[in-house]
Structure formats: structure tokens, C-alpha cells
Amino acid sequence: MTNNDFKHISSILSEVLKENGIEKILKYQLIKREWQNIVGEELSKICHIHKIKDDAIVIKLENPSWRTELMLQRNYIINKINDRIGEKLIKSLRFV
Hints:
Layout: H1 9-19, H2 22-33, H3 35-39, H4 41-46, E1 47-53, E2 56-61, H5 67-72, H6 74-85, E3 92-95
Parallel strand pairs: 2-3
Antiparallel strand pairs: 1-2
């Protein structure tokens, strides 16, 4: 057996996480944990992640009057989220 027959443990773990959908769940948790850093302190006070499903985030607004402003910033927020997690996982935001 040569060194070429062995895989590094990190590549094996990465494969296992991806195959079992755990990698995506970990990225969702990262988004939730980093929400204030992504949108800023002021916005994080008025909007919270309600749920994340597939490539969409549902955001609950404390005050519906912010809906228009956040819709205008939608692409910016999506890009910041995807930059933070290192891939284009999130494609849409919905405000409730």
C-alpha cells in the first residue's frame, strides 16, 4: 500500500458531510450565527431569520414598513450571505 492509496481525513469528512446533507445544515447554522454581522446591528434588530429551506431564507420583520427597504437591498444581502459561507447557496429572500 502506498501513500497514494490513502485519503486525508478532512477530505473523507467533507465527502461524508456533503453526501448526508450535513454540510448544508452547517452552512445554514453559520448564516444564523452570523446574521448580525451580515446585515448589521440595526437591521438585525428589526429582522430575524424565521427559517431557511433549500436556497431560500424566510425573514420575519418586526415592522412591516421595512419590507420595501429590504426588498431593495435583497441582492446585496444575498451576496453578503453567500460571500460569508463561501458558495452561492442562497438565491432568494422572502419577508413575512
